[in-house]
């Protein structure tokens, strides 16, 4: 049993590392990939350099996105998008919800 104790400790440490580091990182990467798939023209985004802009064009073939930053158009890699701060679809659904409330 003494020969296997070191091996068991190694397996336990790997399992702890998996659940504390690797698994949450995978979930975060999947969530980011899903966010990029749902990216649409007109969405307000923030890049990894903390530049704020509005999506003007998405090129799926080259995996680039063109951002409108107060009239200046910049082309970024899709992976440079850190987060979407305001979605076009959400804004439209909020407007329609307000219209429904006003009609009642």
Automatic annotation (TrEMBL):
Intracellular or extracellular location(s): Cell membrane
Protein topology in the membrane: Single-pass membrane protein
Keyword presence, Nucleus: no
Transmembrane segments: 6-22
Record keywords: Cell membrane, Membrane, Protein transport, Translocation, Transmembrane, Transmembrane helix, Transport
Family: Belongs to the YajC family.
UniProt protein name: Preprotein translocase subunit YajC
Source species taxonomy: Bacteria, Bacillati, Bacillota, Bacilli, Lactobacillales
């Amino acid at each position: 049993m003494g020969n296997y104790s070191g091996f068991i400790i190694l397996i336990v440490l790997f399992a702890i590392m998996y659940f504390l580091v690797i698994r949450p990182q995978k979930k975060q990467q999947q969530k980011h990939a899903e966010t990029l798939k749902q990216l649409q023209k007109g969405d307000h985004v923030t890049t990894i350099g903390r530049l704020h802009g509005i999506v003007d064009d998405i090129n799926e073939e080259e995996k680039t996105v063109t951002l409108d930053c107060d009239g200046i158009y910049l082309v970024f890699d899709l992976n440079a998008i850190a987060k979407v701060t305001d979605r076009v679809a959400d804004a439209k659904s909020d407007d329609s919800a307000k219209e429904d409330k006003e009609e009642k």
